[in-house]
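Exercise: predict the structure of this protein bound to zinc ion.
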Amino acid sequence: MTSFLDFNKDPANDIDNKPQQYHNFGGKGVRVQVYWAADIWRDVSLWNNSWALLKGADEILRKYTLALDMLPLQTEPAALAPAKDKASRKFDRSVGKQVARQKKAKGEVAKKQTEAAAKAIEEQGPAARGLLGFSGSVHVPMEGEAPIDGLTALRKSLGTIPDETRLVVVFAHIDGGPNGYTVLRQEWLPWVIADPKLMQDNPKTLLIHEMGHACRLNHQQSDAGSATAKNIMYPLDFKGLTHLWGWQVDTIYDSYWCNGRKPTNWWDRISNAKLPPDHPFLWEEPS
Ligand SMILES: [Zn+2]
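Solution:
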């Protein structure tokens, strides 16, 4: 694992004024596999906001010499947004055409072929692009763990995950309190749910915050007020959280999603609960 150049929690320190506390990772990618629940990809403003969150994550990672490496499409998130929007519309049109053709088809064979084609578009097309059939919301209480049933229903809609070294990120509605949630259960590797609903002061750090949790980063600056809180791992989400300390960036780099090994103890609630509240990490890893 990368050794920290300087372990500190000084809110004034950032890569601009203390570059000696930061490694240069040369733009190494943090891999994510992104999915959108139906309620998100069918709504232009939610869809666009999900892209703003991806772009926000990419910008923060780039500030600290990393980058967001995302699939389904391995392109710059900023450049991708209009193309993806267009792709969604094209997809809807092509399904419409298939249905129209099916109505016109007279022979049984033609009808079956058309049905098969429509099914292929519906099943493989959207899934490959991360567009889920799941609609509705997942319940996450303000404090504590989310019930397993809702998580399982959402997760099942993803099908098989093509590459486990990509962090699974799902944009879906969350009801209950928070707008983001990192699932830390033995059933799955850590994964992230983010609700891209529009917020008053429009912060863009929700996704990178949850990604930090999936890389085992704990909350920081919990006692700070909104005037002094700068760290992205601050428990609340508002505009103005733009800092990561060098050791936090190192932790992201050392995660399974970037340059590190598969995590071991993410789901161990009993031993993890014994870690002090100001501990840097949500779980310990053998060094
Ligand atoms: Zn958090």
